[in-house]
Amino acid sequence: MSDINAKTFKSKLDAGRRMMGQIIVGNDKAILATLIALICGKPVLLTSMRGRGKTALSLAFQKFIIGASEARLQGTPELMPGSITGREIFDEKIRDFSIRLSAAMLADVVLFDEINRMMEESQAALMELLEEGQATIEGKAHMLPKPNLWICTRNPDGQAGTYRLADPTRDRFLLDQDMNFPSENDMVALLRNTDIHRGKANVTGILEKEEILQMQRYNDEMVRNVPDAVLRYAYRLAQIVQVDQPEFKQLVLNPKTAFDKERLLDLSGNKIAALEILEDGISPRATIWLVHAACALAFIEGEDKVNFGHVRRVFIPSARHKLIMRPVAKSLRVFPEDILNAALDTVKY
């Protein structure tokens, strides 16, 4: 292992979480999910209705990182791929074509708001960015700055004016975290804080960019040293939600799991086959990044070793947007969280 350890940056990470918690009131899980994504060097997806603090969260993280630049993209049906990455233009000065990169390609922190309001052609432009940290324009690869953080938000599925995020696009997000309406006490505190109302909340820089890169390297070291039993537990969680595995049918129809058996009855009172609820489970790539996210959570909490509890805590936000549900599941009120909670209840460690 390297010279640093999980306690090296714990005080700074704790200070950042407290500071942002005063601005993003009542959504500590969204702050934690975004911090995990930063340490893993992967994009995060935030699902919420309007006005829940998504923009404030992005701006807070931009200030949290010393010297970080920020850019914003707004998802619309008219948004073109070139607006996301950049395009080739004719430069009058040099009388030749040149590549003009978008602001998002050059920024350290990017807020992509309402990503599911853009059409699938533009969604496709994101896939290389989110997976490889680069965009290929006119045959030439252009790298994103390092470190970088992409915070993408989406409206709940089925809202007017939204398009379903393509399955390969969903698979590239490390976590999908809800931003909920605050509790009564949190809302009262928020109502009293006029600085937040006016966008004047005090956020100071705490982390240097080089420190983030150090944390990312250390997180990779942690992954390489995860105990074998924890890796096998992560595998079993992924394996039990594979539709071609007999364990999945047992999971769905087992009365001891979180499923309400009445949901699994069709109009004739016959049990619906397990394969009709889920079309596809989580991918090997998703399982890899489940382990990375668990290590990042352990690191944030000042621990150098990941354990079963860390894997369990990140399992649902790391996997729920990656399960491909069949249409019948919605009519039966069976949701990804039901399947994943059943997996957590069933797989022992």
Topology:
Blueprint: H1 10-21, H2 28-40, E1 44-47, H3 54-64, E2 70-74, H4 81-85, E3 86-91, E4 96-101, H5 103-106, E5 109-113, H6 120-132, E6 134-137, E7 140-143, E8 149-154, H7 167-170, E9 175-178, H8 184-192, H9 194-197, H10 209-224, H11 228-239, H12 246-253, E10 278-280, H13 284-300, H14 308-319, E11 324-325, H15 327-331, H16 336-346
Parallel strand pairs: 1-8, 1-9, 2-5, 5-8
Antiparallel strand pairs: 3-4, 6-7, 10-11
Which CATH class of the largest domain applies here?
Alpha Beta
Q: State the distance separating the first and last CA atoms.
A: 26 Å
Q: Tally the structural domains.
A: 2
Average of per-residue pLDDT values:
85
Q: What Rg is obtained from the alpha carbons, in whole angstroms? A: 21 Å
Order of helices and strands: HHEHEHEEHEHEEEHEHHHHHEHHEHH
CATH topology of the largest domain: Rossmann fold
- The share of residues in extended strands comes to 5-15%
Number of helices, where a helix is a run of at least 4 consecutive DSSP H or I residues: 16
Approximate shape: globular
Helix content: 40-55%
What CATH architecture of the largest domain would you give? 3-Layer(aba) Sandwich
The secondary-structure class comes to alpha/beta
What is the strand arrangement across the widest sheet?
2-5-8-1-9
Counting DSSP E segments of at least 2 residues, the number of strands comes to 11
Sheet bearing the most strands, described?
5 strands, parallel
Low-confidence stretches: none
CATH superfamily of the largest domain: P-loop containing nucleotide triphosphate hydrolases
